[in-house]
Amino acid sequence: MEPKGFSKLAMAGDSCSPAAVPAVTNISTYCFAELSDLKALRAELQALCKDEQLKGTILLSTEGINLFVAGAAESIDHLLARLRNVHGLKNLTPKISLSDEQPFNRMLVRLKKEIISFGVEAVRPANYTSPKIAPAELKRWLDEGRPVTLLDTRNDYEVRLGTFHGAIVPDIQTFRQFPEAVRKLPDALKKQPVVMFCTGGIRCEKAGPFMELEGYESIYQLDGGILKYFEECGGAHYSGECFVFDQRVGVDPALRETATAVCFACQAPLDAEDQADPRTVLGKSCPYCYVSEPERMAQTIAARHAALRQITQPLPGSFPQENRRPIHIPAACDRMPLLDALDELLPMASREQWVEKIHAGRFISYGGALRGLDHVVRAGERILQLFPEEVEPDVSPDVEILHEDDSILLVKKPAPLPMHASGRFHRNTLQFFLNQIYGPKCPRSVHRLDANTSGLVLFARTRRLCSELQQQHENGRLEKRYLARIHGHPEAEFFTHCAAISKETSPLGSREIDDAAGLISRTDFSVIQRMADGTSWIEAILHSGRTHQIRLHLWDLGIPIVGDPTYLTDRKLGDTQTLLPSAPPMHLHAWKLGFDHPRSGERMSFTNIPNFADLPAAIAESR
To answer: Which domains does the chain have, with CATH numbers?
Structure first.
């Protein structure tokens, strides 16, 4: 084989004027020989090549040498003279070609276990190789119609360009797979003459002895490989061209470069039809490695799910660990004492509780200094609240990625699972899980679901895209529909509730109906099916996005959601916020989501059916 990157190749010995003689001499050769003291030889060859300004690759092994080197003719002669002084390499005879430019970027001298990877230690070409058959002799056998089996030892992508008529072609991607492929051949071949061939002969040096070890009685190697056959016999009994390992990719039986190209991504040879295929994209793909967008997404999502399983088994919050949560000081709190700012920003705790936490050293700046009662906050400041080591409550880890592209991420959130850090949850949250597999460019949630609510959640890949999608939420282009099972049978098929919802939470985290000072909200409901047990399945459409909006509106109407631990029947409130995974689920699921893609503008719609029991047939059958 010859080195990649040749420019304007000319074979040594071609007639040309002195001014036109290429400046770079290229050599390629291999030799099986028992070599020793390889580290010292490697160091010596590295120094010699550096001094002679040679570039390329030399592979050294205890079984021999394989090299591709280019440079000035005199420097090449010095290298060959040194190599021929090595025991076993006296008759080293390279193939020589010329080029206008240096085809290599650097010089590498490497120690390898094998100069051609095969993996069968019993095969030692330095000691024994199978009998060789000259190209002209093989042609004569084929002309006469002798009973001979031709065996191609090359990889599948090489064979794609051409091979001998009727040759057996093992389906292998690497030469290391050849032994197993041979063991699958019919036993009857062991008694017949077999002529094996490759590009230039090096692989057959190992393939032949191996087949003899496997019981083949009449094995021959095509001397010099396909290229030598082309040189002496042309294209007789051969179809197509020959793949070569240099910039030419393929040569025809006259050893002329063909129009065949090679795929940058997978190195597959590409004929004219392949190059015209729309799946061929320069530098990216070809028909043999092209992956459609749905296939690519499926592969990506499968990898994400594997990463999620690794992160959540066990749950990250199942081990005690100190946690830190940032508090961002807004302009409205500028120059407030720390206690007043905490009371304003985090009203779920009393002033007495904040005083106790401040005295306990639970607040520090990002620089690490402790913040006490006398600290005055400034707008834009970030303070860290410290939480002592503790084990977090269990959550459901069954997060599913349903769609992913460079702009958005659509996730099916299980329940119970909080979306963000709050209360006793720091690491057992959806955002923490996603940050571990998408960081440092962490996705940003466009909207939220309660910890006990399952279903579709949309994330944006950047802050700007998140803002654009949230704008769709405000102008009604982002459509959210929920499926719920409620206690009772509503009188109307369609109904709307517009009760305002309080801005603040109770100490337990619940909200209240506050028509006087609450936030305006609206939810449309439609009945899907009334059940015999006194419950009903309904669909809810949000026109605003208040915390607990659907749950609170249904509770206010006297038809709360089945399984809701906070908003109970008979207008009662529970003392539980987040359910345990072992508890009966809250029957609220974000099942439909529609929006305009932030980059393409395409309208996108998704539906996800929950795993609740006793779903109405019309819903369950749409899975």
So the answer is: 10-111 (3.30.70.100), 132-276 (3.40.250.10), 320-390 (3.10.290.10), 408-419+440-620 (3.30.2350.10)
pLDDT of residue 19: 47
> What residues are annotated to the active site?
198
State how far the alpha carbon of 188 is from the alpha carbons of 130, 142, 147, 149, 180, in Å.
20, 20, 13, 11, 17
Coil, strand or helix: which one is 537?
Answer: strand
- Cα 128 versus chain centre, distance: 45
With 0-12 / 13-18 / 19 or more C-beta atoms within 10 angstroms meaning exposed / middle / buried, residue 180 is exposed
Label the pairing between strands 494-497 and 363-365.
Answer: unpaired
Q: What is the pTM of this model?
A: 0.65
pLDDT digits (tens, 9 = 90+) for 137-178: 999 999 999 999 999 999 999 999 999 999 999 999 999 999
Provide the 3-class DSSP secondary structure of residue 277. Answer: coil
DSSP classification of residue 247: T
Q: Which helix (H) or strand (E) holds 47?
A: helix 38-52
Buried b (16+ CB within 10 A) or exposed e, 434-443: bbbbbeeeeb
Tokens of 274: 């392949």
Range list of β-strands (E), 89-171: 95-99, 107-111, 132-133, 149-152, 162-164
- Cα separation of 119 and 125, whole Å? 13
How far CA 264 is from CA of 5, 57, 157, in Å, comes to: 13, 21, 13
What count of residues does the chain have? 623
- The encoded tokens of residue 376 equal 């005055």
Backbone angles phi, psi at 362, to 5 degrees: -85, 5
Please say whether the beta carbons of 267 and 156 come within 8 A.
Answer: no
Q: What is the pLDDT of residue 246?
A: 66
pLDDT tens sequence across 322-380 = 888 899 999 999 999 999 999 888 877 889 999 999 998 899 987 777 778 889 999 99
Q: How far apart are CA 552 and CA 583, in angstroms?
A: 21
